[in-house]
Design a protein that fits this description.
This protein is an all-alpha fold. The protein has helices at 8-20, 22-31, 33-37, 45-77, 80-98, 108-130, 142-169, 190-206, 208-213, 221-224, 230-247, 249-278, 284-312, 314-334, 340-366, 374-384, 391-402, 408-413, 415-430; strands at 178-179, 184-185.
């Protein structure tokens, strides 16, 4: 039976969650708070960059362990919205925690903990959020809807960064002790801390519509029958992965390839603000202005890519985007001595490719997930993708550590090479992957080079049951 097309208001409410949590992505982990933590007031900026990488690596390992089983358990219980609310609430709490981080060395650990813990629960929240994509789109519009949601994160970032720039950063002289049009004191980093309070309210307020407007149907009987204890859920998960491997191996290969390249996308934004300030000499104000411009370009590029995704398919879009990002990263490293002009030029071009790659990777998977298993498969998506968030931080930190340079800026610039290697590896892993067709409730997958199985056979994903 064909389900009716979801109402447009459902897609809007769904997209507003991405708008809401631009407060975490754009403000906390990229252009404001992580840059704030990299200032000399907290100690040696190069050492702070290494510590940030370590904290993010630990966060990624935690996500890798928890994300897929969290999705599987939520599919079986049908409580996607409840767990989206719980995890979103923890992220909001971490944002609130940043308000108490004064700009002195003793507060560095609190700041790093807020970023790392917030990342864990943000990534878990995206499992449940992404699993709602098939509920607010159709096979013919999934590319546009995914691109719309992804672009809302960028446009939300533009609006919020604009508010923070005007209210808490611009204005005031270098010796005035105040910043922003509101004239907020800079003592103890108060202007940044109040900006984070605004970000906290932004995330909490704009995330509400998805819980009101998006309807989550009860799980199919076959999925509901797989309810098990926490540790038993890992057994269910492994059995289902084996079934997916038998029916659609390219789905598994895509999960592994996206593990690499999407971690590279994350690395670009996690360390972009730090690189802009430490390597290319941008001031805190210039980093914010760059962030606004980057979000404008990324948002327009992403929403424009939705139609190409629906028309050409997601893989060509991802490949072209990765090639563009790799070229820009190499040019950034080669022109690092030029200063801010190079960062503005190649950094903004690079940002035009990030959103389309991320959105298309989500639709690639959405097109093949069996109904009722969205949480489980997007949990695997988190585990093998963003949950592999330790790869970019590790290579970023390692590249800085092995750099033969001695100056802080030159040494930190080698982090660009670490991120570039992740993108190159992701592209190489993606090229052999073939796009697949949606797996039906009988576990049949067609169009994958002879990997289809007879309907109702032993590899049928929706027929799997737990053993008690």
């Amino acid at each position: 039976m064909t389900n009716p097309a979801p109402p447009a208001r459902g897609a809007l409410a769904w997209g507003l969650w991405d708008w809401a949590f631009s407060a975490f992505n754009a403000v906390a982990t990229t252009f404001v708070f992580s840059t704030y933590l990299s200032s000399p007031a907290f100690g040696d900026p190069a050492r702070e960059s290494e510590l940030l990488g370590v904290f993010m690596a630990v966060a990624g390992i935690t996500i890798a362990v928890l994300a897929p089983v969290a999705g599987q358990r939520t599919d079986a219980s049908g409580r996607r919205k409840l767990w989206l609310a719980i995890n979103s609430g923890v992220v909001v709490t971490c944002l609130l925690g940043t308000v108490f981080v004064r700009n002195s060395p003793g507060y560095l650990w609190l700041g790093l903990a807020c970023i790392a813990v917030g990342t864990v629960f943000y990534e878990l929240a995206t499992v449940f959020y992404n699993s709602m994509l098939p509920l607010v789109s159709t096979p013919e519009t999934v590319g546009k809807v995914s691109a719309f949601g992804w672009s809302m994160a960028y446009f939300g970032g533009i609006a919020l960064l604009g508010i923070i720039l005007a209210g808490f950063v611009l204005g005031g002289g270098s010796g005035s002790g105040t910043a922003g049009l509101l004239g907020v004191s800079t003592a103890g980093g108060l202007n940044v801390r109040l900006a984070m309070l605004v970000a906290t309210a932004w995330a909490a307020g704009f995330s509400i519509p998805v819980f009101v407007k998006v309807r989550v149907p009860p799980p199919p009987a076959a999925v509901a029958a797989e309810r098990a204890g926490f540790f038993g859920s890992y057994g269910v998960l492994l059995a289902n992965i084996r079934d997916i491997w038998r029916v659609s191996r390219h789905t598994i290969w895509f999960l592994l390839a996206s593990a690499i390249f999407r971690d590279g996308l994350t690395g670009v934004f996690v360390f972009g603000g730090v690189l802009g300030r430490v390597v290319f000499g941008l001031s805190a104000t210039q980093v914010l202005m760059f962030g606004i411009a980057a979000n404008v370009i990324a948002g327009v590029a992403t929403i424009s890519s939705g139609s190409l995704d629906d028309r050409l398919g997601p893989k060509p879009l991802i490949v072209a985007s990765l090639i563009g990002m790799i070229a820009c990263a190499i040019l950034l490293f080669a022109t690092r001595s030029v200063g801010p002009a190079a960062f503005w030029a190649f950094g903004l071009i690079l940002c035009a490719f990030v959103g389309p790659a991320g959105s298309a990777s989500r639709t690639f998977l959405s097109r093949v997930i069996p109904p009722g298993r969205e949480g489980e498969v997007f949990g695997l998506y988190a585990t093998t993708g963003r949950a592999a968030i330790w790869i970019s931080p590790l290579l970023y930190s390692a590249a800085i550590a092995v750099s033969p340079a001695t100056g802080t800026a030159e040494k930190t610039s080698w982090g660009i090479l670490g991120i570039t290697l992740v993108l190159l590896a992701g592209l190489a892993a993606l090229l052999p992957v073939k796009p697949g067709n949606r797996l039906d409730t009988h576990g049949t997958a067609s169009g994958e080079g002879g990997e289809a199985r007879p309907a109702g056979g032993p590899t049928g994903i929706a027929h799997h049951r737990t053993g008690g």
